[in-house]
What we know:
six-stranded mixed sheet, about 575 residues
Amino acid sequence: MRALRKLLAYLRPYWLWASIAPLFMIGEVVLDLLQPRLVRHIIDEGIARHDPHIVSVTVVWMAVTLAIAGLCGWGCGYFAVKAAFGLGADLREAAFRKVQTLSFANLDRLESGSLITRMATDVNQVQEMVMMLMRGMVRMPLLIGGSLVMAVITSPKLGVVFFVVLPVLITALVIIVRKTFPLYQGVQGRLDAFYTVLQENLAGVRLIKAFARERHERQRFARANENLVGQMTQAARMSARTTPSMTFILNLGIIAALWVGGWHVAGDRMKVGEVVAFISYLMQALASLMVFSNLIIQLSRAQASAQRVVELLESRPTLEPPARPTVVTEPHGRLVFEDVTFSYAPNKSDPVLKNVSFVAEPGQTIAILGATGSGKSTIVQLIARFYDATSGRVTIDGVDVRDIPETELRRQVSVALQEPILFSSTVEENIRFGDPTADLARVTRAATDAQADEFVRNLPENYGSMIGQRGVNLSGGQKQRLAIARALLPDTRVLILDDSTSAVDTRTERLINDSLATRLPRQTRIVVAQRISTVLEADKILVLDDGTIVGEGTHEELIVRCPIYREIYESQVENGAFAANVS
């Protein structure tokens, strides 16, 4: 229950509503407990004595207490909903804020499907659990305890039935709950896998259709769905045993009470109303225990959700803020890799980069070339400090990037990522994402340098045109040019283009490079590329192979002394890569 206690701390802003709700429920329970006593009074004092006045007055009292109890129940529900929904909203906001602080390594472990489940389904489960605690978990124990006390007061002779039936019910309940809890934990895990498959299919539906893989993806979805249904069925089957078990024991208790009570009534040792009232309390207590058992099962499921939400909220970013923050007062953009080794694995095995060292002077364009998986994008991620080097260090103007505050580092380094990510917003807002303070003139200038201004002005509302989800209404080259414009907007000292012109034709790519050269001549640029045409005019080309720099120099130098570079060059020339237009 540790996870539950941690999440209940989010109720503090709503403590007043959370306190009022149980008070209303206590009032409802007290009034409900009066009903069997009033029924007994009608039978033993009104009907037995043939006094219609007593019957009429008591019925009126019953109606009044029922009406007040209903109002109390409404009040409890109203305040419980306000408190629980407030907690749910705060939890979702806290989870979202936490995700924004997590590093790439955290996000690698917490897949997007799992994050969606935790922030939506699991938080909703916790929200329902809080409402349940303020309503059912207050009402049912009070009804059980109150009915027990009232039953014994009403008929001490029949009280023994309670003390026989209750232990049996509680034992059955504990057994079922202990078996149900781990099953619902499994349900949440299967739900993660289901949402992951669902999200991947929805995001990649065009790719699926392009390769006619609908049947394969239907089978993959069916497997995830069947696994989820199987686990849910197993958990529901165990939960379903609760009601018949409780009902069977309840009926046995009623039979026992009727048998003992009838025997006493027949011997004039007990009144009929006393037996009726006792059985009412017995049914009230045991029925409440049945409902309470179902609430316990729901609580066990919510507890599994609470643990997952707490796990997210307590996740610590793998990138620690600098212990002694250093701000570069006059940044120049000198970038140095000093014997850098990096591994994605937690145990630091199988390094992706191995003893990488190079220098990028201010104003230089450094191109990185190599086969897929050679470590090109990893170098980019270390410069922007998306990950920390396993050994060695990366410095900007002599300062280790691990010692530069994140906000300051983002002012010095901007990145156009390999996959252009666009939001469902206007063109202007997507470009201004790089610098929210920029005016339209700066946005237009950045778009012009990225060769995006021409196609943007042909859109229905120019820079005010809406971009569809993930840029669905734009071509690949258009999306890349907007992403480059976004990276250009802040005018940083270091600009990283991570294969960000792969979908742009060579002519447009040349125009972009010309604009960059004239716009900020002292800006250091790191260009990751697959095409030789992208890197020909770079001041320095790094050739990577299996995480190691195997060649460093200009095109003319590498074509002579680097076999891997020469092989890439010759293969692309033979395939006509320089003439390719991929718009």
